[in-house]
Queue: 4 jobs
Job 1
Amino acid sequence: MTAHRRQMKLGAFLWATGHHIAAWRHPQAHVTAGVDIDHYIQLARTAEAAKFDMIFCEDAAGVREANVNIASQTSRSIGFEPISLLSALAVQTSHIGLVSTASTSYNEPYGLARTFLSLDHLSGGRAGWNLVTSASHIEAANFGSTGLRPHADRYERAREFAEVVTGLWHGKLDGASGSGHDGQSFSVRDPLNLPRSPQGAPVMVQAGASDVGRDLAARTADVVFTAAQTFEEAKSFYEDLKGRLATYGREPDDIKIMPGVAPIVAATEAEAQEKYEELQELIPDDVGIALLSSYLSISDLWRYPIDGPLPELPASEGMQSRQALVVDQSRRDKLSIRQLARHFAGARGHWRVVGTPAQIADELEARFEGGAADGFNVMPSWFPGELDAFAALVVPELQRRGLFRTEYEGRTLRDHLGLKRPI
Amino acid sequence: MADGATMHLAVSLVPEAAPSHPSDAGPDFSLLARFVQKAEAAGLDMVVLADSELVARGDAPNRQVPFEATTLLAALATVTSRIGLVAAASTVAHQPYNLARRFASLDIISHGRAGWNASMVPNPREAANFSRPEGFSGDDFRRRAEEFIGIVQGLWQGWDTDALLFDKSGGRFFDPEKMHLLDHKGEFFSVRGPLNVARSPQDMPVLVMSGLSEADMDIAARFADVILLDEPAGANADDLKRRALAVGRSPDAIKALMNVAPGAETAAGPEIIADRLEEPFRSKSCDGFNIVMPPVEAVFDEFVDLVLPELRRRGLLRSDYPGATLRSDLGLAGRDEL
């Protein structure tokens, strides 16, 4: 970064019909996204033409919602398995990074290291792995687990898992020379039977926000995704994580922090707001009530009139301070159960920005220049429309301001992100 | 043939040790893509992609391969449109839920052309890389593989073919009655389901089984769509079809392909090779052949350009793809009877 100004990194977070819970019901949403590879190839090309650093895929080894009535009113029970999806996209694109989530809870490090390295070869050095641990009972039941492991145990397994994977990628595990791995959760004897990565090693991404998750990220991650509603939250996370790097002998610039952002963009603010309301109207009442019930830990919310106010709630053990704030706000603003439910279903903990290209660029710029982000993971509300809109309206505005690249300068994901190549 | 049936042909890609690139130039996908496109232009039923276990024997670490087979399959699916694509994947290296997802997804990516080659021969090096240094006894490996395969096929059938409604205005994405939990609890695995990938465009990915010993034959009779048998295949193929009948499947529901490696013999002339394939096929020792060769273009070109026309001249080989999916090209019905 000598001659030109520091520029933001952008990820295109692809998820089925879109990130809004009712995305699939939007009249122009591609409702068969979960069974249509051509749709994904088109999205990848859109993101690549807009010079995004990477495509990002989430993953879970199970359906998302146990209640089949609720699940059947959303589009998230079926979709592509992301490794196969990204392998297909690898040979249909030429520059964009390809990052997939995979859990350390229900994989083995040798197999995962091998699969991602193969994706890295298919793409000429554009692969990344987003490490997560699984905290879902639905997933556990698909792997013979009787229950979830405690949080600390999950992260200890994840730490060992990451150590083995990077050891294999870096060619530092080799049983023949007596340096295989024999640890608490895993043992590995042989080196990988694939050539070394074209970018040194695939990029390591993490998303854990807990204290132990942050430490693991500080130790091993190249990129960190995070959810932050406010500027203060984002900045505090950013400073905390960058501050932990020195402990592991790393420089602040060795990690790129990319909070999620869910933009809705239109030529005018009123139009953007209207687009948002249109989506909110599509949230099925069952789905909204189920999400709100689970957030507020109330099991019988459906008994109350949906257009009436939130009932008096007994103070409960499960009630956190943030949830209490929500209840207070709903009383203050005299929101009905339905209104409150839609409010939650629509946002779901992510930073939503609704406005014109200039307004959205202003918001992103403020966090980028204000020491709260190195870039953003863009979560379009529905596909393909909101990705198209971001690429066509917001990206050129960021480029005009010198905040985002106009051409790829390298070929690998590490090149795009400005990351050091591992030795 | 009297009944008009023609032989099925697969080609197995045995990965060469990847060229040693000292620099950044990785293995070459385009070479493999050209090879598979050539096989597709020649009308072959399917390509079988080996993974590490097929190159590993003895006590040395596995030789290098260019790509892991399932990722390679996904990439090849986007540069081909008719040929079947089968990848090896080990029951030791994967969990059944993960493997079922991967292949279900590959099947949708390829529009119904994917298959899984489940080998019944354990790779002696593999378990030690998957946190099982003690390995599995032969009998445990077999019982575990049997349970594994049953789970995978069960998960593949968890969504009825008409489960997805996509009803935007009615607000119903799928019909809750048409999604089924597996609720499997067995000796080695317990898997609740359902799979989070939609139903296959060809009902289920094609299950190819290989490395079968006598003790594996009942498993293959219950689950396999295609079996790969070493020469001479006749007795084993007959045996297998009898066993299939015994478990209520049609003998035609399993296609037996005999492994042949004609590489060195192309010099003998296309007629000699065609004779060698015609005899066991006409005597119903097998339903076709699995041509095993390294991905060397010159060797494959000779086979495609000289031997295949000779087989067609004799009426032994179809000239185009009869169906839209691998299952239909192989003359296999859906597996609703299971």
Job 2
Amino acid sequence: MINVEHLTKTFGAKCAVDDVTFSVSKGEVLGFLGPNGAGKSTSMRMITGYLPPTSGTITVAGFNVADQPLEARRRIGYLPENAPIYSDMSVLGFLSFCAEMRGLFGSAKKDAIDRVVQLCFLERVLHQSVDTLSKGFRHRTCLAQALIHDPEVLILDEPTDGLDPNQKYEVRTLIRRMGSEKAIIFSTHILEEVEAACSRAIIIDQGKIVANGTPDELKAQSPFAGNVIVTVGNVSKAQLLPQIEALKGVEKVWIVAEKPEHVTFQVVPRGNVLPELLEAGTRNAWKIEHLDVEEGRLDDVFRSITLPDTKPAA
Amino acid sequence: MKTIWTIAKRELGTYFTSPVAYVFIVIFLFLAGAFTFMVGRFFDRGVADLLPFFLWHPWLYLFLVPAAGMRLWSEELRLGTMELLLTMPVTPWQAILGKYLASWIFLAIALFLTFPIVITVGYLGHPDYGRIFCGYLGSLMLAGAFLSIALLTSSFTRNQVVSFILAVVVCLFLILCGWPPVTDAVSNWAPAWVVDGLASIGVMTHFDSLQRGVLDSRDLLFFGSVIVFCLFANSVVLRAHRA
């Protein structure tokens, strides 16, 4: 649905997007991650045809954005960053304008407005001036605008920015639900959102793609992925460490927390350490209070990829 | 075409949902009347024509048209809605024409509301209606030319005040260009072709000939070219914003 090939954008000497290639097919929700200024918004602006790329090609639903901009744009719903919106109109007036701009008139327009109003929970503010709306409602009004023509492709630049946790949850659910029949790209800073809504994620840093995969694949890249964390109640640190270090499957071990009532340690395994660890536990009569295998957190992956100089905190 | 009209409708709505339209129309009608009757001595002249009425239009438009047009792109830039508008299926030309037409229609509405003065001269004497029609046409074309300038300057900046001042300065330049005191002053030191060039881009000679009831295609062509040039420059500026 969306094909981006060797996309590059320079502003003067500064390279905002550097040779980016990826594609999104129907039924996929692609999460766009990256620190501020990484080139997320610039990429999205080029896909929607707002900014012309310095080089590279973009096709949306089979139409080249540079050669057939109107055909491509008809198939895109776009929520720009900060959800800009005409402040002197009512919500209904704004949606009606957007519907007409998308070629919807008469009963088709009415149906489209009814649909997005319901989808974005705007019934309560329909006749209110956009000026007087809270940030959450403004955001959802702009989101409704992106959905009004039921586009095949959705580009959402930070769709949950500025929403409260309930609204975030609703928008995320909405994205996931629509994801099955559309191609969606959305950018975010919130990593849990990627796990909640995306089928695939791209991490972009300084204009380059530095990671691309499903959330699980990305998490597996975490320096902590596969580590075993154990809390033991009745053994002191001094007794515990030699017992663990003696095990063959232990690459490295360190104490995470030490309190009078218990000690928590983390093991970097060599192969599968669990059976051996549990056996050592029974042998030495540890009172194991808690045992956990780290799945890897996207935060850690994100940090280790975008800040290569920082060592993972032990 | 439908897209242009959708954009124009939204812009027109913006004028009338805010106080801008009403303040503008009231001030325009008040000043037009005040200049005509008090400064222009409409009754003392004892002539049934609208010369003292149209005489002041360039000076009214000098401030009022930039005020009506300063918002057109500046506001879009400030709110960021330009990104929204230009990622919809519209060409920049459709967006420019939609905005331009909306404001021109608005100015035409304000101008139309001066119709009581036509009734007044018609009641008082036997005016030359052809000449009055020409006068209105000239006034509308002048407003259109100034408006295209205001639209252009509003695309330069997100600041409406800057956009207003730039438009006023350019319009003032065009008014003064053909004015004899100015052309005389310039002719003292500049070669003749500069003086002629300046005089020919002045709006006043074209405006005046329409006021005299002369419907010359060259005058209409002049206003038309100012408008087309400014709208074209506008599309260039829009492209530059996105590059």
Job 3
Amino acid sequence: MEQVLGLAPDAASAKAGQGLGKAGKWAGVGASGRAVWGLCQGSGKAPYQTAVDVSGPAYKCSCPSRKFPCKHALGLLLLWAGGEVAAGEEPEWVASWVGKRAERPERKPGEVADPIAAQERAARRADRVSAGMAELASWLDDQMRQGLGGFDQRAYTELSRLAARMVDAQAPGVANAVRRAAAVVGRGHGWPGELLEELSLIHLIVAAHARLDELPPALADTVQARIGRTVETARVLAEGEQVADDWLILGRVIEPDDRLTTRRVWLRGATTGRVALLLSFAAAGRPLDPLPARPGEYVPGTLSFYPGALPLRAVLTQSAPRLPAPTPIGSTARQALASYVESLAADPWNERWPLVLQDVRPAPHANGWALVDPTGEALELLPATNPWKLLSLSAGAPLTVAGEWNRAGLRPLTCWLNNRPVIL
Amino acid sequence: MGALPEEVRERLGEGGLLDAAALATVYRRAGRRPLRGVEVLGVAGGEDRPLPGAAAVRRLAAMLGGFQTTALGEWLRAAETRGWGVPPEYLPELADHARHRAEYRPLVIAAAGRRASWLADLNPEWRFLHAVVAEGNNTELWTHGDGVQRRSWLRDRRRAEPADALEALREVWPTESAATRADFLTLLVDGLSLDDEDFLEAALDDRSREVRRAAARLLTQLPGSRLQQRMTERLHTHLLVTQGVLAIDLPRTLTPAMERDGIEARVEGLGQRAGLLRQLIAATPLAEMDLEWLRLPAEGVAVGVLQSGWTEAVIREGSQSAPSREQATAWARELLRSSANTGTRSPAELLRLLPPDEWAAAVAALRKTVDITELVGGLPVPWPETLATDLLDQLAKAGTGRDWARLASVTARAVPPEVLDHPITRESTGEEDTWRRRLVETLTFRREMYEELS
């Protein structure tokens, strides 16, 4: 039941779905090995036709709701999960829908539909990117010649225009970096220095792109990823480095945006100690795919890593159900920073890094908060962090805390109290 | 420049400003050191309470997340009686709830245990979590505390040592602002006695109207006060029982002496003279009136004026200790009986003066003349089993008409734990989104809540 409700796009849908998860609301319900279906009388004249392909799951409903899955699909699944749906013969409208889904060709991992066309596309893209990088290089040179003084006057329009040009040049990664640089301008006293840092790292991408052939292949992949080349999941599964382990979910960050919701899930292998990142996206208002496990639990499975000098982003193939996990071993503040520096050595553009700090205590620092380790050294929390859950859990005593580090500070994600993981 | 690493300087020399900047940037980021000298906080001393089961905690989380949030206080009370604590990660949200709902505060303080005052020290918005600590007699709080601390000191002091609290108030009286004087004066309601009378009589001549009114209110409630005697005498000049009739001669004007005793020139909705009479009745002790009057026909004024005056007197004395309270109960019973025919403006307040085991019968008798939701809506919850069962029986028989929605929503919250299993929760609720479904949902939610916490 809980699993079904977990599919609901929001609380209202879950509630409405529960209301419809009753046999009295339905007619003509049935289930086959691959699908569940039924008719639900709504406010209209004809009842809604609802069907769920349970292998996906995938949903089909004739109601006008824009929620996905809609309350009818949820109600139907609840009914089914409650064992109230008898087996039956698929009616035509169900059989044809599920049939069409099944026919849809599923390409083998890594297989390309039309190799020649793909090559041509890749070549066109490479040309565009090169042209974009050249434009960026000369723009950067101009800035250095003119100096950054007075840059705040023209920054916004210039950088927005430049970011748009980079999107055109099929370099969305660079476009993001340019937007980040734009956000720095005028913020605080030190912004010219910060801006120079951002621009210098953009310059580093441009310079690396110019000598892509000379770079070690892994580093070349990293540069390509920073520019914004995407690698298909299928290729990652087929060709990426594979590591099997019990993967501890260290925590997750969800960043909603106007158009796109991003979720980062940080993992650490129980035996290998490897860290990894699962990235998911969803259009604003749509649900993200469900988490493989709750923070603080193990997911047994194999990770396939995206190519690069710092293998971090990965695709998970789960091999067994999630498991409870003990409190993870953590490090001191100094060791934690050292692990981030190692990641920088491999990928100088790396912004975020998962940390597990052991026996740290939250304490006030400057205008915010910090976590103090047993040696007395500390890492600051991200300025906007709400510290109260963490403080209440600690009550002054040491805790193990997992979080996401970036230059501005640590974003605490999960902490362990008496071996019990708590999501922050 | 000299502080830059050699590699960076080399690149600068070659004219590669951005090369050098990139190298310096990564240098700087890689060279980040941990902070030193951050002072840690002390550990909150004391024991933690045991935690309830996972299902109970999930329910708490759901309520904090906005589902059936109105049952939160009930959850906390039930957990408190059974000695359960709350997992610490929920305390910040609970504290934020309690900031706006004072009745939650003692419960949240109990649930937070050793963390209550520890968190209160860190977050000024949760200072109320300290309340339990301020119980001791720390005169510092009275002489140097902020408004909230002084108020709670005086309230606690008054409860412990009424005479000391009066003395403390008397000392600072001349230097406090009018608003503070009026506010502090209301705290004397606890432990009110004839020892306070001289002070309150003097306050009837205060510069501030608010203070004068507060003093008059207290003296009206003080059995045996001179103000009560004055009111009694006034009433008896305007009211006479003759030949089985209650003859009323309405007061003509508001005299300065009446005004000093807190009588207002006008009462909303009444003529000036009827208003004066109503106030006189309301301020006269029940002991000085005769229950018989209720049954007599009245002449010279509408019976509603009399009844509303009596109702107010009854409500006032109902909050006092015996024998006033017993008298008020008898009056309340009588007033309700007569208003079963005529209707009264505050039936709910009268009803709560009756012993709870009489509520069900009284509600049944009043049903025809009084809006039933209004009647039971003001009763303290949980209701006695008899009343709850009666009303649920009724609701079970009712259709799905919208008229029942308000009563259903009041009843859903007021049913005592023993009746949450009423047959209505096992009947099919029919249509999708009716009051009946919500009622059953709430009753079931609450029943499961008690089961999880037991």
Job 4
Amino acid sequence: MEEHKIRVLVAKPGLDGHDRGAKVIARAFRDAGMEVIYTGLHQTPEQIVEAAIQEDVDVVGMSVLSGAHMTLFPRVKELLDENGADNIILMGGGTIPEEDIRELTEKGYAKALFTPGANTDDIVAWIRGVVQ
Amino acid sequence: MTDKLKEIEEKQKAWQERFGRLKGRDAKFMTVSSDPVKEIYSPADLVNFDYDRDLGFPGEYPYTRGVQPNMYRGRLWTMRQFAGFATAKESNERYKFLLARGQTGLSIAFDMPTIMGYDSDHPRSFGEVGRVGVAIDSLQDMETLFNGIPLDKVSTSMTTNAPASILLAMYVATAEKQGVSAEKLNGTIQNDILKEYIAQKSWIFPPQPSMRIITDIFRFAKDYVPKWNTISISGYHIREAGSTALQELAFTLADGFAYVEAGIKAGLDVDDFAPRLSFFFNSHMDFFEEIAKYRAARRIWARRMKEKYGAKSEKSLLLRFHTQTAGCSLTAQQPENNIVRTAYEALSAVLGGTQSLHTNSMDEVLALPTEKSVQIALRTQQIIAYETGVANTIDPLAGSYFVEALTNRMEQGSEEYFAKIEELGGVLAAIDKNFFQQEIADAAYRYQKEIEAKDRIIVGVNEFSQEEQLGIDLLKIDPEVELAQVQRLKQLRQTRDNIRVQNTLEELRNAAQGTDNLIPRILDCVRAYTTEGEIIQVLREVFGEYKEKAVF
């Protein structure tokens, strides 16, 4: 049986243009053999969830460097759940303080969050571990 | 080749053999930009070196050694810390804090809605008001921002691009209220839209109307705010997006030449606007590479402005620049180490002859900086200025075989990039073809892979790491800030003269549809307390919006 190719949506919400991390991670996922869809910049939570459902992805990886992570992750999670897409794993990265990471992951708004300095191989391995 | 040089080459060959027999350390010897570095540099690397032609003296063509004859012996660089958060009132307090501690210029950070042209009550602004900078919706906020700060006494740099004309107009209008006339105003707007398409991605309109707004600003400023730097052509963000030092240099200068060409094409005399162009570079960790970059930048600019664009005024030839230490070099791990990184980066900017400098705070990789960390960053500059002795003599690294060879390499590499960009049809065409974006993405990915393969060691990240508890306090922005700002804006909309607002907006629309200079119309809007979002909306309706074809 052919192995399921993991599909990831790399999403860049918010008004900022810091797309270095999103692009590096998108490329690392692609090099690791995943199907990657990159939304481009300035996406609203609604646009991200619509793209995730349309593209039938396993994972949404959201890159947030604007400081708005405490509103964006809960909002996207809420929209995924509302649209019957609670099977899609929401994870992300960016400049997110430790305290906020704890709160977002404990409350289930994000499955995991990676900060600057994280190794892309570790992130790939983490995704392979959680996508059944 | 002289006999002396031959002799040196022979001696070097002999030395090279001895060197080759010794076991080397297990490391990649390359710059931060992944360029190989040789074990030694000597006169053999500078065979065609001509002091007069390549360096000259400070304040003299081709200005490699500095733009002023006396450099830091006359006046130290401006210590200008970028700051802004939450509301105008809180930022105003931070500016006063910095000025009281010896800072010599202001640098305003706006929040993302202000940068992108949305009012604080726009649905797209939700969650972002006051987060990464200060929220400015109308003249009212600008008046608060500079309350008690006399605008004829400070120089102010504003990091704004797509809506730069509006924020400049608000600054001018605030000065009017303070009784300060516009020709006394000193400062800079970033206003560099090309690097937005290339790297920073805070665009609103498509390139053509954006370039028109910029040339309108050149024309307006020439007569109205003659001391104002109308553009800060920025490599900083290109570098932060992952470029190499050479790409930062070459792409930034290419943008600069594109603005010069746009100004000339709009019918302006090159010497009427070129003296007001300024630059903004990054200072990354590779000490010598950065110094070479600044020195090459001055030389390339002077040569091209004179030879290609026929500038006659000496001021048109001078590449004056601001520097910020590299945010992307800071680590979230062991953040106190960032103080040391920033100090070295700041030192290379000073040795490279910067006109002004921002030193990052250790905690900026985690959040906006606290007062304590900002103070350490500012003190870092003061220690360089007053204790290290590096400001005693001008361009102290000139004549270093290594630094001169690197400077030459930077210039040659830039010329190669200019040729490539020209081949693609110029800067706008190259943006459209994703040339810059792909080059930067490739470099960023290579850098990341080098770190992961440990070809590049980052202290505390892939070596010398430790389990740690974050030992520093972080600045928190209260979510109430957004609600209060939205409330203030609502009140303004109720109390201002809304008929006047509508009239100024209609006049702006007419100007935008025609060819009249937009800036006087924008100034009228601003004086009537028309908001930034309302002005942008009218322009958006006329000019349309830019859409990126994203590549990775």
